[in-house]
Amino acid sequence: MYRNRNGLLLVVSGPSGVGKGTVCKALLERLETMRISISATTRPRRVNEIDGVNYFFKTQEEFEAMIEHGEFLEYMQVFGLNYYGTPKAYVEEERRNGHDILLEIDVKGAMKVKEVCPDAVTVFIAPPTMSDLKTRLYGRGTENEAAIERRYKEAFAEIQYLPKYDYVVVNDIVDRAAKNICDIIEAEKSSIKRNSELIAKYSEEMNEQ
Amino acid sequence: MYRNRNGLLLVVSGPSGVGKGTVCKALLERLETMRISISATTRPRRVNEIDGVNYFFKTQEEFEAMIEHGEFLEYMQVFGLNYYGTPKAYVEEERRNGHDILLEIDVKGAMKVKEVCPDAVTVFIAPPTMSDLKTRLYGRGTENEAAIERRYKEAFAEIQYLPKYDYVVVNDIVDRAAKNICDIIEAEKSSIKRNSELIAKYSEEMNEQ
Predict the structure, then answer these.
(1) How far apart are CA B104 and CA A142, in angstroms?
(2) Among A2, A192, A206, whose Cβ lies nearest the Cβ of B167?
(3) How far apart are the C-alpha atoms of B206 and B209, rounded to whole Å?
(4) In a mutagenesis test of the A interface, which of B183, B197, B198 is the best target, namely the one with the most A β-carbons within 10 Å?
(5) Do the beta carbons of residue A152 and residue A137 sit within 8 Å?
(6) What share of chain B is helix, strand, coil (3-state, %, to 5)?
(7) To which H or E segment does residue A11 belong?
(8) Helix axes B197-208, A130-139, angle to 10 degrees
(9) Counting Cβ atoms within 10 Å, is residue B20 exposed (0-12), middle (13-18) or buried (19+)?
(10) Are A49 and A55 in contact (CB under 8 A)?
(11) Beta-strand relationship, B82-87 and B39-41
């Protein structure tokens, strides 16, 4: 009631293998008011996908017009082929409706979002140890050793971005990590910078008396 | 395990009548690792009080020597008579032992503590509305109307310090306010500034491989 009604924009990153998908899933289960951000993309729709649910499907011309008009919080082109991006209007509307928005995104995308939207809360999900991360990458059993070692090096490179995030959550136990992110959201909603209207509210009341 | 082991210094303020004593009590019940700060004072020990438990009892000469040596996070002299102060050494030792320390203190004391100890987390407990605060002040039934009106004006003056705090917790329901402070503590422990050693830890591990 006393709180700023706008939802938070929560940006979550972490190296592959750290289990951020699982943590985000647990987080969405805990927080009813949280919505996952829907990306726009130019890649073809698959048969089981619904426009506006899984993605906003766009033609290349549409997507490039949106870039032109500054309609993305961030976007990227994968292998010079398909575009993926986070539409600003969608995120802003959800937030105005009081929904917290979860954006799971790589380190470079996260940095862009923080630049465009400084009130975004950025969380880096980190492994308990590097060797734990390596074990998890091998454990997935879907890639050969060279590919895994490459991912491992990439993971370490991503971890260098850690100091640029607001928070770090170590994923030792999924439920604990998810609860930790919930705590961060609650704390952020009590931060002074998100409650600047309070003083004015008390003053108004004093003047009316 | 991965976290900085040092405890937090949590500074809580709020106007009289807001119920901060009740919130702090509920907080201490929730958090086993939290200790309440013990003040030093020159006022005489009462029969049921224990030195080092209720207060550190000091003579005026001892207290003034401690001021001289900069041994207080903050101190004050009430009506030019008795001194009260927060001993730096006690707080630091508890924190080194991993205990979070709760310091319930007025706005001016809180500002001094934040200055000396910038990593302190400051929380302002605020009333849902000013009229709610007035109702609570009258509800205590221990003072006459003039005294209550004076307290009410003082409360409004204290509320002007709100923007200087890190967080604001509105005490509408005591348990919710206490939980909210717990969330703040958990979030702060995950903040990047309190986990700067993590990167070094991962790098060390990579170098050893």
Answers:
(1) 55
(2) A192
(3) 5
(4) B183
(5) yes
(6) 45, 20, 30
(7) strand A9-13
(8) 60
(9) buried
(10) yes
(11) antiparallel
Q: Are B14 and B103 in contact (CB under 8 A)?
A: no
Q: pLDDT per residue over B191-209, tens digit each?
A: 999 998 998 999 998 888 7
CB within 8 Å: B172 and A2 = yes
What does the alpha-carbon distance between residue A38 and residue A62 come to, in Å, rounded to a whole number? Answer: 17
Q: Collapsing DSSP states into helix, strand and coil, what is residue A40?
A: strand
Q: Could you give the ipTM of this predicted complex?
A: 0.91
pLDDT digits (tens, 9 = 90+) for B46-79: 999 999 999 999 999 999 999 999 999 999 999 8
| Closest listed residue to residue A10, CA positions, set A157, A159, A117, A155 | A117
Under 8 Å CB-to-CB from B139, ≥6 apart: which residues? none
Cβ contact A208:B129 at 8 Å: no
Q: Is A207 on the interface with B (CB under 8 A)?
A: no
Report CA torsion sign: B62, B66, B68, B74: negative
Q: Give me B203's structure tokens.
A: 């790098």
